[in-house]
Amino acid sequence: MGHYSENCSDDLNTFWDELSKTCVPCHKHSQHPILPGYEFSPNCGRHDDGGRSEAPYRPCAAQSFNNGSFVKCQPCFRCAPNHQKLSECNTTTDTQCCLTSHQFQTQQVQRSTTLRDQVSSSSLTTAKHIGLGLHGYSATAWIVLTVILVFSALAFLLFIYIKKRRRTSRAFCFRDKENTHQRSRSSKTTAAVNEEVALLQSETRSLEDILSPDLQSAPLQMVLDNLDVLEELVILLDPESPGVKNTSHLASRCSFPATWITYTYSLRESKSPLRAVLEGVTTKHPEWTVGHLARLLREMDRNDAVAVLTKLSLLKVF
Q1: Strand pairing category for 83-87 and 38-40
Q2: Is residue 312 part of a domain?
Q3: What does the buried/exposed string (b/e) look like for 85-113 if buried means 16 or more CB atoms within 10 Å of the residue's CB?
Q4: Domain around 95
Q5: What is the DSSP string of the chain?
Q6: Is residue 139 in a domain?
Q7: What is the largest CA-CA distance in the chain?
Q8: pLDDT (tens digit, 0 to 9) for every residue of the chain, 318 residues total?
Q9: Last residue of one domain, picked from the residues 100, 126, 154
Q10: Last residue of a domain, one of 73, 100, 127
Q11: How far apart are CA 301 and CA 283, in angstroms?
Q12: What per-residue confidence (pLDDT) applies to 98?
């Protein structure tokens, strides 16, 4: 039996609607949308009296598909001999084909040959017209015309050559810039790794292992004299960050009053608070050494600042 509805036997993609007394397409039913990978059963599987003998859908048979755009499954496309199959057909997607690389290159050559033939034909036609127009002129005119054509061809070839050279040199420049950038980035990465190693060592080793006895006994003034080290300490200690002890905590440990610390921080736009603290300490306690500062920084858990102190040069001690 090829159909279930006697009233709609001429169109198997419809079913009999008792209310409207008409044949209604299956996909017009609110509960029967088109489904990818399926097709509608004959008359949606419904009889004229509303009874049902089959589900409204059937899965697509082998070598057929429905991507959600058809009421019936469509046969899968077969790739031509000169095409390459990208993907196999399945119940929801048709076969995907494309030109083979050899065929693509052949077509490119054919297009190029056709274009070259057109240009050659056009050139011959032009030359023929020129020849007819110059028939009455002397041989000198022909020589001049030939020279002009030769120089035009040479100029065109020179233009193409220069353009290719520019592309090559430009690509080389881009590669050179990229290599330079990579080397610079590698150097920065190496420096960052070295700083991380120094910081890790300062956290796990004792102060005596980090700073030599000569450096620990050096006067505190040495920190003020070494501007590079002082600048790194300022960058680390002056900012006020939540949960991180800074210059204000160092000043408190050096017995500076809170009012003095507040006043010093109010002038930070013109002078670093850390520099003011170190200058005050060296004035009040000239006997203080780098070791005193290092121990205070260790108590503050500022091992990063202790690692910076290792960069001090002992040449300035003597």
Answers
A1: unpaired
A2: yes
A3: eeeebebeebbebeeeeeeeeeeeeeeee
A4: 1-100
A5: ---S-STTTT-TTEEEETTTTEEEEGGGSTT----TTEEEPGGGGB-TTS-BSS-SEEEPPTTEE--SS-SSPEEPP---TTEEEEE---SSS--EEEE-HHHHHHHHHHHHHHHHHHHHHHHHHHHHHHHHHTTTS-HHHHHHHHHHHHHHHHHHHHHHHHHHHHHHHHHHHHHHHHHHHHHHHHHHHHHHHHHHHHHHHHHHS-HHHHS-HHHHTSBTHHHHH-HHHHHHHHHHHSS--TT---HHHHHHHTT--HHHHHHHHHTTTTS-HHHHHHHHHHHH-TT-BHHHHHHHHHHTT-HHHHHHHTT--GGGT-
A6: no
A7: 115
A8: 578 999 999 999 999 998 999 999 999 988 889 999 999 999 999 999 988 888 999 999 999 999 999 999 999 999 888 888 889 999 999 999 886 555 544 444 454 444 445 544 544 454 444 454 545 556 787 888 898 999 899 888 888 888 776 655 444 444 444 444 444 444 444 444 445 445 444 455 677 778 888 888 999 999 999 999 999 999 999 998 888 999 999 999 999 999 999 998 999 889 999 999 999 999 999 999 999 999 999 999 999 999 899 888 654 444
A9: 100
A10: 100
A11: 26
A12: 82
For the full predicted model, state whether its pTM sits above 0.70.
no
CATH number at 213 reads 1.10.533
Asked if 72 and 12 touch (Cβ cutoff 8 Å), the reply is no
Is residue 144 included in any domain, yes or no?
Answer: no
CATH assignment at residue 60 = 2.10.50.10
Write down the residue that tokens 């990208």 correspond to: 86
What residue type is assigned to position 35 of the chain? L
Q: Is residue 173 part of a domain?
A: no
Count of domains observed in the chain: 2
